Amino acid sequence: MVEAIMPPDLLKAAERAKGFMPSAEGRALFETACEYGSRGPLCEIGTYCGKSAIYLGAAARLTGSVVITVDHHRGSEEIQPGWAHHDPTLMDLRFGKMDSLPVFRQTIAAAGLEDEVIAVVGRSEQVSRLWNTPLGMLFIDGGHSEEPANADYEGWAPHVVEGGALAIHDVFESPEDGGQAPYHVYLRAIGSGAFAEVRKEGSLRVLRRVGPGI
């Protein structure tokens, strides 16, 4: 495993980027990606403006891997107008829809990670049906309601290699702390027998694939 020390310029870029990942969780994501990046490509479901993609991209550079980040960039339910996490600066007024893609591209370009981070623009469930490449690590941070969260797990978790990692963000055991869909996916992964928890940092859970049976 490579020494998991994030370059200061990339750490600053990640901390400045628009997004919702606390620094401690971002560093844990980076360290996890460094540990598993040599096993295959890194894949992120849910890109938003690229904050977590910087942590993953930094690890990809150190391990000689790449990050595939999948998002339709029209925003998940919780960041739509009228919801708590809505950012009106991301609205495309021509179409009346969210569009985080331009900010994501600026974020990754400014960080100098365009060679490491590959953007796939499309809906997760559609892209997953076309995907065949084994993954060293999967990071699920897409839609946080039950249907999209479970679709992300069903569509992508089978591609994680044995010995690879599944990371899930915004896992809250108590409904008072946050939405329950990522927690339910976490329980589903553990209950499948295919994954075992190896790390916890804030709302981030890291599971290692230990067998078949997703």
From TrEMBL:
- Per its UniProt entry, which superkingdom is the organism in? Bacteria
Q: Name one GO cellular component term.
A: plasma membrane
**Per the UniProt entry, what is one GO biological process?**
methylation
The signal peptide, as residue positions, is: none
Q: SUPFAM superfamilies recorded for this chain? A: S-adenosyl-L-methionine-dependent methyltransferases (SSF53335)
InterPro entries given in the database record: SAM-dependent_MTases_sf
Among Gene3D superfamilies, the record links this protein to:
Vaccinia Virus protein VP39 (3.40.50.150)
Q: Name one Pfam family in it.
A: Methyltransf_24
Molecular function via GO = methyltransferase activity
> Sorted alphabetically, which keywords does the UniProt record give?
Methyltransferase, Transferase
Q: Which residues form a coiled coil?
A: none
Please state what the protein is called. Answer: Putative O-methyltransferase YrrM
UniProt organism field: Thermocatellispora tengchongensis
